[in-house]
Amino acid sequence: MTRTRTHTSWHTAVLFSCLTLAFGAGGIQSARAGDEGPPLAYLQGLTPQKMNRHFDALLAWAAGELAEHEGEGLFADHPGEKAVFEEMLVLARHLMEQSRQAKAQGDAARARALAYSAEATARYAARMPHLLEDRLEKDRNPKASRVESECSEPEIARNRLPPVDPLPPSQGPSHHIPVVVAFAGHDPTGGAGVQADVEALASMGCHAAPVVTALTVQDTRNVTGVTPVDTALLVEQARAVLEDMRVAAFKVGLLGSVTTVEAIHTLLRDYPDIPVVLDPVLRAGGGARLADEDIMAAMHALLFPLTTVLTPNSVEARLLAPEADDLDACAQELMDAGCEYVLVTGSHEATPAVINRLYGNRRLLDTFTWERLAQTYHGSGCTLAAALAGLLAHGMEPCTAALEAQEYTWETLKQGYRPGMGQWVPNRLFWAVYDEGLGT
């Protein structure tokens, strides 16, 4: 199957950004993780018919919340709050209708963005009665409210939501935003490594918990030094997070040493039900080697059997499977080593368009064709792998997650910029630019 990239209009980006700014983290986190309700419709890969039913059920639940609290007299002294609630539901219906029209016109990217905004609006509206209750309670007893905020979950964590498609256990009701542990090196340019993971995961509606594996000396042209973090410190970083937060996915990037591979293997083995996305960082964009034969052998033996999705570029795939005749054979060899899925990216191949291939179940599952951009980029692999991990953290199945992550990554490259004298950097926060006078 061949995919053709469509473009999101500027007005859609403005609309989405305005909703983000207006609702804050609370509104958007509900849209992403769905509290105890269903995940975002487009994240489930729903057909248009099922999406319509999904949204109708969401609106019915939101209206039910209003009726229930109105019956309890909540809005008696707050008619303005009720009016805002009703206006938001009208806006949600309008956004969803615009999404359906965009879908009918073949603009899939705009349709998804509008559907996202519609769900964010409806879910935030449904939370308003609970937020009002919480505010009134704090007004009545400010001291008790302070104690509750310091010692217990916020009130919204206990909200009732529609009993439709409950979230997986890893996304329990007190964890609105999925947590993703990202093992990565620190890149002082901010183009790759830890910062790339944090920005991409935030864009997917996730909370990034970065564990630094190595300190690097690099610019946007090449890497000149890598110092692996002490293994004990690495494990302490990860254990501190894992014992405190409910983690929904792992993303693994730069390793730096065999002992780092062994440490991460030990950590991942303790959490066999959490998906793992492994970006095998073997060489820098400028050609510097970042993993030797011993590290690659350790990855084969210890990490591949625990990997949900491996995301090598074509050069890395050939290095990891040197005896394979072609990329198809490389992918088969990597799956034989234990990887459940392998997404091989083709930007390094001499083809007019970039062709990425997804493998699973010992076969080629899908082929994705993307317009080849004129520039080369620093941090594109980190961006793709982190976005994919974020979508898996939301409960999306890997095939759909692979497509969505590529769409996001392609847009970050299209919107990329050149902050230094070397490669361009993906603009992972392109969606946050809400004024045409900002950005380039």
Please give a structural write-up.
There is one protein chain. This protein is an alpha/beta fold and 440 residues long. It has 2 domains: 10-171, no CATH class; 179-432, Ribokinase (UDP-N-acetylmuramoyl-L-alanine:D-glutamate ligase), CATH 3.40.1190.20. The protein is built from 13 helices and 9 strands. The chain has helices at 10-33, 48-71, 79-104, 108-140, 142-151, 193-203, 231-242, 258-269, 293-303, 314-320, 327-336, 380-393, 398-414, and strands at residues 179-186, 207-218, 223-228, 247-252, 276-278, 309-310, 341-344, 354-360, 363-370. The model is unreliable at 1-45 and 143-175 (pLDDT under 50).
Calculate Rg over CA atoms.
23 Å
Query: β content, as a range?
Result: 5-15%
Note the overall shape. Answer: globular
Give the N-terminus to C-terminus distance in angstroms. Answer: 33 Å
Biggest β-sheet description = 9 strands, mixed
Instruction: Give the domain tally.
Output: 2
Q: In percent, how helical is the residue content?
A: 40-55%
Classification by helices and strands? alpha/beta
Would you kindly provide a brief summary of this structure?
The chain has 440 residues and is α/β, with parallel strands linked by helices. The protein contains 13 helices and 9 strands.
Spell out the blueprint of helices and strands:
Layout (H helix, E strand, L loop, with lengths): L9 H24 L14 H24 L7 H26 L3 H33 L1 H10 L27 E8 L6 H11 L3 E12 L4 E6 L2 H12 L4 E6 L5 H12 L6 E3 L14 H11 L5 E2 L3 H7 L6 H10 L4 E4 L9 E7 L2 E8 L9 H14 L4 H17 L26
Parallel strand pairs: 1-2, 1-4, 4-5, 5-6, 6-7
Antiparallel strand pairs: 2-3, 7-8, 8-9
Helix pairs in contact: 1-4, 2-3, 2-4, 3-4, 4-5, 6-12, 7-8, 8-9, 10-11, 12-13
